[in-house]
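Input chain follows. Return structure tokens only.
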Amino acid sequence: MNLRAVHYLVTLADVRHFSKAAELCHVSQPTLSTQIRKLEEELDVQLVERSPRKVMLTEVGEEIVERARAMLADADAIRAIARRSKDPHSGTVRIGIFPTLAPYFLPHVVPEIRTRFPRLTLRLFEEKTEDVINMLRQGRLDAGLLALPIESEQLATRVLFEEPFVLAVPESHALSTSKTITLEDLEQEELLLLEDGHCLREQALEVCQLSGAHEKLDFHATSMETLRQMVAAGTGITLMPVMAVKPPVAHTDNLITRPFTQPGPKRTIALVWRKSTALGPFLEELAEIFSAVDPELLKP
């Protein structure tokens, strides 16, 4: 079985368009189409339903694509083993990270990674938690920086640190004069939250359940920065991870943050990877760098 043809099939399954798949694979459309037809002839089964407007996989095609993803991931692992036998710290590592962590954490650790591993190519993918987990399982990522818990027997987990939350309020809010916040202070408060799919939303909802607060139902933000600006505009209050309010993040006018009385709400950040990957020992090295984040960044 030709691995190149398998790669073409998986790419076509991802984009559902022959021209786009050919462009991503850096081949002509006739070449990609011919290779997939040859794969169908070899397997003696139709994999793709072709129509002028859209491309669909057959039922058996869908099943084969899932197996093909694992096959390509294994092939990448073989190449990685070969590369690292010559130079353990070279090659490419693909890491997924969720949006409410990426812009606040990465600037503090990427320079150290570049210094320690100058021959390493680090590819970062900012995606929601569910998408990072799916990409890991499919072999499209080597590791993920995620908030626990993660339920998967296929994945190894290395806890890095715990990040506290702070309460963000406009200057005019009654809680802005408090030195610290308790969960009881949030009773009956309305919190601005992110839209579905963000792990921070689930964590904030847990705080609401514990404190008697509730979410502001007529508003769902798409990003942490939207939440920040809506608080500054006096629209409401919200929870923010502490690194999101630390330098080099710029000060926001009319936004006050207050720490919670300990033990307050927090999230646990971990590096996660497939147990079957050949990169395990190297990912452990990366985890050491990620976990050595300056303790001042994690102080509310």
